[in-house]
Amino acid sequence: MLIAIDGPAGAGKSTVARAVADALGFTYLDSGALYRAVALAGARDPATLDIAFEGDRVLLDGADVSEAIRTPEISQEASRRATDPAVRKALVAKQRALLAHGDWVAEGRDIGTVVAPGADLKVWLTASLPERARRRGVPPDEVRERDQRDAGREHAPMVAAPDAVEVDTTGLSIDNVVRRIVGLVRERVS
Ligand code: DC
Description:
The chain has a single domain (2-189), classed as Rossmann fold, CATH 3.40.50.300. It contains 8 helices and 8 strands, in the order βαβαβββααβαβααβα. The protein has helices at residues 13-24, 31-40, 72-81, 85-99, 111-115, 129-136, 140-152, 174-189, and strands at residues 2-6, 27-30, 51-54, 57-60, 63-64, 104-108, 121-126, 165-168. The strands form 2 sheets. The chain has a 5-stranded parallel β-sheet. Strands 3-4-5 form a 3-stranded antiparallel β-sheet, with helices on one face. α2 (31-40) packs across α4 (85-99) and α3 (72-81) packs parallel to α7 (140-152). The two termini are 13 Å apart. The relative contact order is 0.23. 2'-deoxycytidine-5'-monophosphate binds next to α2, α3 and α7.
């Protein structure tokens, strides 16, 4: 079974997707970490990179880059590199290989539209721009810039799948959001 959670930066995707995965006993996939690792690797060919997950840690060619990929600079660079069709092709293939076996909660920008259009449940997670900027601890302009690039790019732009359920997390607790999504999953399987 596959749950896709897409949406803009700061909507709460990572926290919520991880908690939903825990609640259901599924594995969590942070697709943004792949784009961040490519950004950290600089000019290297994304198809040759060894990016792996070990529990909560992200490994790039065997080195733990979990913290190094979370800087504001890498956030912007990941968003820039994500516009490159060669980068997307390599990372979509990697995601599909991972998702082919087992039960997953995968989060990103294009899981429900491109990576896994056949997902059992698609959630579009949003929140107001000021709240998303506050959660990320960055100026609203920085979040807006990334939104515009992610949504405006030619290849696999960030957009809600037509069959996604929209959940606006503005002013909601994580628990509340997680309960709603777990409820949606249980409705689908019952
Ligand atoms: O979710 P995140 O902030 O870690 O993602 C970092 C960048 O990676 C994001 O600005 C755009 C890109 N990305 C993408 O294009 N497609 C995804 N499925 C996930 C992330």
